[in-house]
Design a protein that fits this description.
- About 20% of the residues lie in helices and about 30% in strands.
- The chain has three helices and twelve strands, in the order βββαβαββββββββα.
- The strands form three sheets. A six-stranded antiparallel sheet has the order 3-10-7-12-5-4. A four-stranded antiparallel sheet has the order 6-11-8-9, with no helix packed on it. A two-stranded antiparallel ribbon has the order 1-2.
- The two termini are about 25 Å apart.
Amino acid sequence: MIDFHGVKTKNKKFSLFIVLDDIFTIENQKHFFKYFNEQQAKIKWYNEFEPLNIQVDYNILHRPYEPLKEFFEYLIDKNIFYSLYRFQTIRNKGIGQHRDGGYENFNIEENLWDSYWIWFRLSQDKKIFFGENQEIEFENRAMLFNGFDYHGSPGIDYKDYDKPEWSILMRGTPTQDFKDEFNLY
């Protein structure tokens, strides 16, 4: 059995993740896959040796990363985040199974759910697994999940760097409308 905390909802139920495919449709996925690649070809905003990782103490939605402005406008339009303070984009890189920072201070019963992790897959080839030993594969396009649970992408050997496999990890405080829709704290 996989050891996980999951996402706790107001009705005290836990779920490993909440699928957000209705928000991030197949059309959105295709559009942003093309957009990210066009922006990369045009202005080389992504450094292949260092994933884009914006972690700040201000709301990124108020000062979005200019090369991906259209994506941030999409987030605002979808009314997902009230405040976004982490935005990470990874291309063609596996990330081993891990728990995100702060786990040692996390208590599922005591911690307030003031922020959540959301992951978007821009390519169906990009994989993410849950569990210390990759027991569960997430097969949808987008999800809300608990970053304190083990998760990661396999260490795929990308011989062709131009193979554009993108994923986006975000952490922030959802809007009240988003919380209400998914019965979140």
